[in-house]
Amino acid sequence: MKITVDEEKCCGAGTCVLTAPDVFDQRDEDGVVVLLDESPGADLQASAREAASTCPAQAILLSERA
Amino acid sequence: MSEADERVLDYPLPAPEALEPPAEWDELRQRCPVSRAKLPSGDEVALLTRYADVKQVLSDDRFDRQLNQPDAARLSDTDSGGVFNSEMSSTLPQGGEGHLRWRRLLNRWFTAKRTNALRPEIAGMAEQLIDEMIASGHPADLKAGLGFPLPVWVICDVLGVPSDDRDRFSRWSDMFLNLTRFTGEEVKTAEREFFEYMRDHITAKREDPGEDVLSELIAATAEEGEPMSDKQLAATGLGLLIAGHETTANMIGKMVAMLLADRDRWRALVADRTLVRTAVEESLRFDANSGLGTVRYLGEDADVAGVELPRGTTVMCSMAAANRDAEAFEGAAEMDLSRSPNPHLAFGAGVHSCLGQALARTELQVTLEVLLEKLPTLELAVPAEQLRQLEGLVVGGLREVPVRW
Ligand code: HEM
Ligand code: SF4
């Protein structure tokens, strides 16, 4: 799994951090998403997927290849 | 609009029971995803009820809440449309670059990390309120005893308002929000008192900054060379109070009512506390009585569900109807406490999606955890069918949530 985030789209609501704290964080200055782990291991993939599908700004993109 | 459906619905649609969805939703989603609806003001909107359409419009940042456009629909026929419309929208940016800046500045205070750090404080508040409720005995109104005070206490904390002044904030908020119960004169007086209080409070924060959001905004905007005025700071305080109090207060009441309406749900939670997070999300999704919905003004033509909507249309997005859309959620009519993922739209979507959602989630989770801990035998003191909806216009809720234990 490969994750990318779109900082421009992110509205900083923090849903991803609440869902997958090991994969996402937020910048202190403006709340914009910070990707901690762009290819998370098997144990984190379900929560990363959940974060992508519940991100209100659709700012998290997943590709399941590699 | 399709030629076939010339029917104009009266909006909001009546619900059969306080926790049940309006009968029309299924049919609208299937046959008339863009329908004509008349607001209490008499103005017409295009009503969206499908998940995909609601999400599309809310996520499109070309569309704003610029309801001050001369041809935009008005919600109610009272002259001002309430405090939210007057002070807040004229002082704070509602769209574009200005909004983005305001939002990013505030975001730093509403990150998941910061709201998580508030957990112990929020738990302390919930414990205190529940203990007081237990001390006064049952049956009790959980909304008045817990749902209403908790979120306003939290907002006072966020604003750096000392706990001694919480009751004044509570009363102001009550007056701003229950526009029907008070006279225009009373609301005006409350508004004046609130702004006087905020003026002194902001002066104090300028001199002696704290950990609160106002001190943070003062410092951050000064650093950027574009300091925020006292007026904007006060409007931000008012905005947070209005956006964060009634919504969360009612959601606490509805969440507990939904979980108690079927005792199996409550029992499942008592048996397995790890369900709390998903149960909160499912309560947000399942809430059929979340209020009017969210409006967008189309500044240009748009194609929604294959219907050409002309510029100047006011669109009403019913997130509650979207959240029950069987195309988007398996078993949409069932409450599934372990549903995951749960991409509901209760907090909206896109650039305007709820700024306080991490905080709201934390408040709901903590409240539920403390209730399960202290009152595992909690139950509704009236049959669920007898719960009554609030008469309010914008945010849906229950008038009271009678409980015993
Ligand atoms: C369960 C509780 C809550 C619900 C259901 C809720 C719902 C919403 C919704 C649907 C919107 C979007 C409005 C739109 O798109 O026009 C919104 C916006 C907003 N909410 Fe919440 N909210 C809740 C709690 C809170 C809390 C606790 C706060 C802060 C203390 C808050 C602050 C805001 C603000 C400032 C906005 C405007 C954001 C913007 O324009 O960028 N909300 N909320
Ligand atoms: S959930 Fe989406 S919008 Fe919210 S912080 Fe994460 S990436 Fe940004």
How would you describe this protein?
The complex is a heterodimer of chains A (about 70) and B (about 400). Chain A is built from two helices and four strands. A two-stranded antiparallel sheet of chain A has the order 1-4. A two-stranded antiparallel ribbon of chain A has the order 2-3. Chain A is globular, with a radius of gyration of 11 Å. With about 70 residues, chain A is α+β, with helices and mostly antiparallel strands. Chain A has one domain (about 1-65): Alpha-Beta Plaits. In chain A, a hairpin with a 6-residue loop joins strand 2 (about 25) and strand 3. Chain B is of the alpha+beta class and about 400 residues long. In chain B, about 50% of the residues lie in helices and about 10% in strands. Chain B is built from 16 helices and ten strands. Chain B has helices at about 25-30, 50-60, 85-90, 95-105, 110-115, 120-135, 140-145, 150-160, 165-175, 185-205, 215-225, 230-260, 265-270, 275-285, 320, 355-375; strands at about 10, 35-40, 45-50, 140, 295, 300-305, 305-310, 315, 380, 400-405. A five-stranded mixed beta sheet of chain B has the order 1-2-3-8-5. The interface between A and B is medium-sized, with 22 and 28 residues. The site of iron/sulfur cluster (SF4) has 16 residues of chain A, from helix 1 and strand 2. Chain A: One of its GO terms (molecular function) is electron transfer activity. Chain A: Its cofactor is [3Fe-4S] cluster. Chain A: Keywords: 3Fe-4S, Electron transport, Iron, Iron-sulfur, Metal-binding, Transport.
Secondary-structure map:
The complex is a heterodimer of chains A (66) and B (405).
Chain A: E1 2-5, H1 15-19, E2 24-26, E3 33-35, H2 42-54, E4 60-63
Antiparallel strand pairs in A: 1-4, 2-3
Chain B: E1 8-10, H1 24-31, E2 34-38, E3 44-48, H2 51-59, H3 83-91, H4 96-107, H5 112-117, H6 119-136, E4 140-141, H7 142-147, H8 149-159, H9 166-177, H10 184-207, H11 213-223, H12 230-261, H13 263-271, H14 276-286, E5 294-297, E6 302-304, E7 307-309, E8 314-317, H15 319-322, H16 357-374, E9 379-380, E10 402-404
Parallel strand pairs in B: 1-2, 3-8
Antiparallel strand pairs in B: 2-3, 4-10, 5-8, 6-7, 9-10
Helix pairs in contact in B: 3-12, 6-8, 6-16, 8-9, 8-12, 9-10, 9-12, 10-12, 12-16, 14-16
